[in-house]
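Retro notes (design track)

What went well: tokenization of the new backbones is finally stable.
What didn't: we kept losing track of which sequence belonged to which structure.
Fix going forward: every design gets posted as structure first, then sequence, in one message. First example under the new rule, 241 residues:
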């Protein structure tokens, strides 16, 4: 690995490694279909509203993420005029356990790991949820730090402080890789970590922070670590991204 490259990469898991947007959008759209919602909107719009409710709850007193999921969904359903069924909260937890990695996640992380980069997840979730996600990822990680471990949720800086303590490296030797701009980029930068925003949808930055790197996918990390990047299928031509 190049000397200028970091020694450790930390990750926001859901949305960065795993298709969180697709998972939540599909769940909420299916819920609307089952409730025969007359105001049927695209999954992205439904997800954006639910996420805004969840973000407000994450800033309150700590409680397990499964409770955050249930309460945010209960409030969302109340707004939509649905009768609340506690089974919906349990269904959202089950859904999250099944969400799948993006196609670039496994090969890019494997390349980065082969080049000597340590990989650590820093996620706003519970241990019993992320254990299922780790099965889907099928990549060895050097550590996993959850909100349950820290008793707090990102963007609280204590989550990143505790992650750095466990990693045992200076902040400038760690790059935090994240899709969740407002959850991750600012607090990681304030603690001296390098940052990389995985901007899969080529959106404008939603905050004033400017990450050190901006990538369309995780191949940017593999290349930062000295890997060769995307490998075309046999007989295919590689195109410029």
């Amino acid at each position: 690995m190049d000397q200028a490259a970091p020694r450790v990469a930390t990750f926001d898991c859901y949305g960065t490694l795993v298709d969180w947007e697709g998972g939540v959008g599909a769940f909420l759209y299916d819920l609307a279909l089952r409730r025969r919602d007359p105001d049927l909107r695209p999954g992205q719009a439904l997800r954006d509203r639910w996420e805004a409710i969840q973000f407000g709850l994450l800033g309150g007193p700590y409680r397990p993420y499964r409770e955050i999921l249930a309460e945010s969904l209960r409030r969302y359903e109340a707004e939509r005029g649905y009768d609340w069924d506690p089974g919906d909260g349990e269904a959202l937890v089950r859904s999250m356990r099944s969400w799948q990695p993006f196609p670039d996640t496994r090969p890019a992380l494997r390349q980065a790991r082969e080049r000597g980069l340590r990989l650590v997840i820093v996620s706003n979730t519970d241990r019993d949820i992320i254990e299922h996600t780790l099965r889907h990822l099928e990549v060895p990680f050097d550590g996993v730090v959850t909100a349950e471990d820290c008793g707090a949720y990102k963007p609280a800086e204590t989550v990143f402080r505790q992650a750095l303590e466990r990693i045992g490296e200076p902040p400038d030797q760690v790059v935090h890789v994240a899709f969740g701009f407002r959850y991750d980029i600012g607090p990681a930068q304030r603690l001296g970590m390098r940052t990389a925003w995985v901007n899969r949808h080529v959106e404008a930055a939603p905050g004033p922070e400017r990450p050190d790197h901006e990538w369309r996918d995780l191949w940017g990390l593999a290349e930062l670590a000295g890997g060769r990047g995307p490998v075309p299928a046999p007989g295919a031509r590689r195109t410029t991204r």
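Added context from the reviewer: The chain has two domains: 8-19+100-224, 20-98.
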